[in-house]
Design goal:
Elements: E1 2-3, H1 5-13, H2 21-30, E2 31-32, H3 35-49, H4 56-61, H5 65-164, H6 166-190
Parallel strand pairs: 1-2
Helix pairs in contact: 5-6
């Protein structure tokens, strides 16, 4: 950047130099000023506009980039603080939700284990009932076979007795009838 020498030359000449506004702004923007030169330039512009300020600091404070940056920084810090508070609140809510979720999982696990125990107990009861039914069925089949054997024996005995005595046959027929009734009752019970 150029040093402020041309401005000093203009002051030394004390002549009016007329530059278009855009050229003047462009020239001033491209130049580097010392603090004293910048203050003098601000004073000249302030006097031109009829603005009276107490100090150079208050005059430049409005356009001071440091002040504007400080203001922006404060605003950003406020926003950051608000975001951090929101994040902390969200984090706390997440912890609460995780606790609730863990409690619900524990409840589900408890209910699930109780249900498994009940199912296992019922399976054991069903297996025991099936075993009893099978044992009972085998007992009935054995009993029926024994009764059928007795009937066959009575039939043989009756055949022999029929040839010898007729009265004995009538008694044997009654015994056979009673025996057949018992077999039928036993068969019906096992079904």
């Amino acid at each position: 950047m150029k040093k402020a020498a041309p401005l000093a030359v203009a002051n030394e000449l004390d002549g009016a130099l007329f530059l278009p506004y855009k050229t003047l702004v462009s020239t001033i923007s491209s130049m580097a000023f010392s603090e004293g030169e910048a203050q003098k330039l601000i004073e000249i512009l302030t006097e031109k506009n009829g603005i009276k300020q107490d100090t150079w600091h208050t005059a430049t404070q409005k356009g001071d980039p440091v002040t504007a940056l400080k203001r922006q920084l404060e605003e950003k810090e406020k926003l950051l603080s608000a975001e951090q508070e929101d994040a902390a609140a969200a984090k706390n809510r997440l912890r609460e939700i995780n606790k609730e979720l863990a409690a619900e999982k524990a409840k589900v696990n408890s209910v699930e284990s109780k249900a498994k125990e009940q199912i296992l107990s019922r399976d054991q009861e069903i297996n025991a009932l099936q075993a009893r039914m099978q044992a009972s069925y085998k007992d009935h089949v054995t009993e029926i076979q024994q009764l059928q054997g007795k009937v066959q024996c009575y039939v043989k005995v009756m055949g022999i007795m029929c040839n010898t005595e007729s009265k004995t046959v009538e008694l044997s027929m009654e015994s056979l009838s009673i025996l057949l009734t018992q077999v039928q009752q036993t068969t019906q019970c096992s079904l």
